[in-house]
Every structure is written in C-alpha cells, then in structure tokens.
Amino acid sequence: MTLQLGVIPATGWSALRPLWQALGWNEQDFPAAESWYLQPNAPVGASVLLVHARAETIIARLMQEGMPPSQALMTWQGQAEAMLECFKTHRRKACMIDIQCLTSPQAVDSLCQYTGLSLSMSLPRWQTAELPAEEYLLIATQLLCQRPEVAPLLAQLEACTLPLSDACLQPPEIDLPLVLQRLISNQEQNQQLVDAHEQAKRQLASLTKHSQLSAAELTEQREVNRLLLAQLQSVQEAFETQMAEKQPLEERLQEQQAQNRALTRAKQKAQHLRNKLNRLNSRITRKMGATIRALGKPLRRKPADKRRLKRQAR
Question: Would the pTM of this model clear 0.90, i.e. be above it?
Fold first, then answer.
C-alpha cells in the first residue's frame, strides 16, 4: 500500500527516512511532506500518516535554530492546527502518531496492525533525532504554561494521536542543575564576550583616531612633498640656467688650458734648445781655449831669457 506522509518540519523526521520508505512512502509520488497538509483542500492518497511531536520539543528545536520564542510558538500552533484539521477531514484514511513513540520494532508492529500497512522490506535500523538542548526545553515548557489558550489544542492532539507507547504521554525530563550550570557558564561566556566587545570597541576607536591622525599627517606630508617638488624644480631650472651660462666660460677655460699647454710645450722646447745651445757653446769654448793655448806656446820665454832681457833693459 502506498503511504502519503505528512510531517511537522521540526520533528526531526528526516532521521527516520528509511523507516518511512519501508512503510511504503515514496517521495516522488508524494512530495512536500512538510507542507501539503497546510492546504485546506489538499488531495490525499489511500493511506495517510501524519507525524508530529510534543509541543515542547518542536518549539525548543525551533528556538535552537534561531527563531524567537513567540514566533516558534505561533509556528508550531499553525502547523499543529492544520495537521489536526487534516486528520479530522480524512479520519477514515489518516492516522496521527507522535514520532517520539517510534523507539522500538514493537511500536512499528503496532502501527502496521492499526493502519493495515505492511513493510515493503526488512525493518531497517533507524535512530530518532536528538532532543534539543535542555535549556530550550525548559523555556518552551514555561512558554506553554504561560499560554493557556493552547491547552485545548494540546488536548486534541493527545486525543487524536495513536498511543504506540507511553513515551508520547511523558513530558521531557529536564535536568535543572545541568541547565543552571549551563546558564552560569553561558553568563560567564557572555560577560567575556561583552568584555572582548568593549575592548574591541576601544581598539576600534583608537584605530579610528590613529587613522584620522594618519590621514592628517598624510595630507600634511603630501603638501610638504608638493612644496619640496616645486623647490626642486626651481633649483633644477636655476642649475640649468647656470650651466647654460657656464658653458661659454668652460669653453674659454678649455681654450685657455689648450693655450697654456701649447705655451708650456713651447717653453719646454725653448729650454731644450737653450740647453743644447749652452752645451754647444761650452764645447766651442773648450775647443777655442785649447787652440789658443796651443798657439801661445811658441811665444812663451824661458825664465833665464826673461832675466837677461830685464838686465839688458836696465
């Protein structure tokens, strides 16, 4: 027998997908299991299985996913009322169960006996979804206590639900000391986060101030750089002007240096010629002296002759 499945999304029904398929549910034939029953005149198959869970569990799971408490309560209430109306409309074909009762093969056998369903395969292993955190369960329980207007809806759901086991009749057990310990730990963590947030704000303010100062310093530095660049350009132009004026002087200096080098070479050449002339004069002088001495030898007299001539002269 083909099974049409309708579920409240926050029941954790996806964890039991192998079981639904073994009971005859085909997602291709009956898609949108989480929403089709919300339509008042939605068509149904030959056998309909409506799956919900305790209100505390659904509301707590929605809050754990990030939904505000009041919105989580309204979401559960709308889905539960729509599922209950679908069950009443199709009472002959529909069966409503609490997913938390499917904890054993005996519960599945009871479901099959009541609905006439048969397993299309051997009973697979399944594991129910984990319950939400206990602090969320505590808040959801207190929220339901503060809303007496939902009490009739809770009573109708309990009356229309097939009692596969006593698990669906028992409210969730909440370890209050553990919840208190978690709340204290969360409070300490929140305080640490607040302190870290304040420190981050101070750091951000400091960085913002530093950034503003840096921006002012950058603007000032840019102005200084602009003035330095203008001054550098002025110096460059003055340097180019001086170089242009200095070019003729350098040319004259190079010309004068060339003349000086030529004069130096001429002086060196003249000195060389004088030295050569002096050596030649010295040589001629020596030769003339030798010649004169050679010519003067016959004219010289002996000392005896000189004395005789002196006496004769007296």
Answer: no
